[in-house]
Amino acid sequence: HNTSGADESIKVGIFQNKPIVYAENGPKGLFVEVLDHVARNEGWKLEYVTCELADCFDQLKSNELDLMTSLGISPERSEFLTFSKEPIWTFWGTIYANDIDINSILDLKNKTVGVRKKNKITSELKKLLNNFNIPVKYVEFDNYEEAFNALLHKKIEAVAVNNTYGLERRKTINSRLNK
């Protein structure tokens, strides 16, 4: 991105991935704090744009966005994105379920599992379950919030999320699921 124009702002895409990056009365989260710090030191002017992840990708491809936060590296993404070399946060996947008998991925056999659309956790889970020949019905959601609400309203039996979202929601989730 060319930052030579003093009035030109860097458009940064953010999506709901609390507490890492999210919009709640403005941009918030660890990645926003890091980026704001870098921008202050470098004299950058940032403009945050809130979008669903798929829309953020479309905007990146059409050069409407200059920068994106909180994305995992994948071969598909590497075709049109350049990733930083320094990791800021490490993600992994986890499963939450209404049924206390779901203790491992083997227990997901024939269950309805909520997943996030176009998500690395989703693609890795699908690969893993495929490798073990475990049939699962997937229900795709735009974000983890929608997926968790479906779980809490018993529209799905389990939900796959990243560790960050799970940690953020653990207290709320556990109190609701144990009712």
Keywords, separated by commas or semicolons:
9 strands, elongated, three-stranded parallel beta sheet, disordered N terminus, 179 residues, four-stranded mixed beta sheet
**Number of beta strands:** 9
Average pLDDT rating:
86
Overall form? elongated
Distance between the termini: 51 Å
Adjacency order of strands in the biggest sheet? 6-9-7-8
Number of helices: 6
Radius of gyration: 18 Å
Uncertain spans: 1-5
Helix/strand/pairing category: alpha/beta
The fraction of residues in strands falls at 15-25%
Let me know the largest β-sheet: 4 strands, mixed
What share of residues is helical? 25-40%
Query: What's the SSE pattern?
Result: EEEHEHEHEEHEHEH
Account of the 3D structure:
The chain is α/β, with parallel strands linked by helices. Helices cover 35% and strands 20% of the residues. The protein is built from 6 helices and 9 strands, in the order E-E-E-H-E-H-E-H-E-E-H-E-H-E-H. The strands form 3 sheets. The chain has a 4-stranded mixed β-sheet, sandwiched between helices. Strand 2 and strand 3 form a beta hairpin. It is elongated and about 55 Å long. The protein starts with 9 loop residues before the first strand and ends with a helix. The N terminus is likely disordered.
